[in-house]
Design a protein that fits this description.
The protein is of the alpha/beta class. It has a single domain, classed as Rossmann fold. Helices cover 34% and strands 21% of the residues. It contains eight helices and nine strands. The strands form two sheets. The protein has a seven-stranded mixed β-sheet with strand order 5-3-2-6-7-9-8. Helix 6 links the parallel strand 6 and strand 7. Helix 1 runs antiparallel to helix 2 and helix 1 runs parallel beside helix 7. It is elongated. The N and C termini lie far apart (49 Å).
Length: 241
């Protein structure tokens, strides 16, 4: 039997293909519960991006659970840059920057996030509440390294975010990026209950094919095996501007 449009859209939402669900939900009646849930969630996500600092992070992050931090450290060490300057996009409580300044003391760092992390970070680093896509309004060709861990999938406009990342990076700078691999759930007919219980944070899914098509021809592009904090595979890659 052909899957109903409502169910198809609901499972896009639940499978972290939010942007696709958002476009298609216009085809549902305005009073449809699936459409209402999706539009309400979009307003929440839009509000968070439009008003940086309106969300709060409880932290702290347990660094040992994040293999990407250690892999990024090794990559940065091998760059052999004197007094490198780094920007961490989506820095949350500054855990990666705290870690990297302990490991590489001569590094200068800044972090940005839409979430307000408070002032007690215990780190000599500048933090800014702003959208990732707006960083080009503050800096231009300033950083030797830009890290972006699990951020693109949360942004309302990933293309603007990528443009901004490359705008703040110096010529020849290293971009270190990580994107999650999403495993789709088994389909059930109980999608309404699932939608009411869950608020997906991801706007979209990124595949290895998409990453290769988007970044594969960038200078010195490389992908590395890396696990996330749950022990699942993740897309970890670097390239130079």
């Amino acid at each position: 039997m052909r899957e109903s449009l409502e169910k198809k859209i609901a499972w896009m939402y639940l499978d972290n293909e939010f942007d696709k669900a958002l476009i298609l939900c216009d085809k549902l009646p305005k009073n449809n519960i699936v459409r209402k849930i999706i539009e309400k969630r979009y307003r929440e996500m839009e509000n968070a991006e439009m008003y940086p600092g309106s969300l709060h992070w409880s932290g702290p992050t347990d660094i040992k659970r994040f293999p990407k931090f250690f892999l990024a450290r090794d990559i940065i060490r091998n760059l052999d840059i004197d007094n490198p300057k780094i920007l961490d996009i989506g820095c949350l409580d500054g855990s990666f920057l705290r870690f990297i300044t302990n490991e590489i003391p001569d590094i200068t760092c800044a972090g940005v996030d839409i979430i307000d992390q408070g002032n007690n970070r215990g780190i000599n680093c500048e933090f800014f509440n702003m959208r990732a896509q707006d960083i080009g309004n503050r800096w231009y060709k300033e950083f030797d390294i830009v890290t972006c861990f699990d951020v693109l999938e949360h942004t309302l406009n990933d293309e603007l975010t990528i443009e901004a990342i490359e705008a703040v990076a110096k010529l020849g700078a290293t971009i270190i990026m990580n994107l999650p691999k999403i495993v789709k759930e088994k389909r059930t007919n109980d999608y309404l209950n699932l939608m009411l219980k869950r608020k997906p944070e991801h706007m979209r899914i990124y595949t290895k094919k998409w990453i290769l098509n988007k970044f594969g021809k960038r200078n010195d592009f490389k992908m590395f095996p890396c696990l996330d904090e749950r022990g699942d595979d993740t897309h970890f890659f670097i390239y130079k501007t």
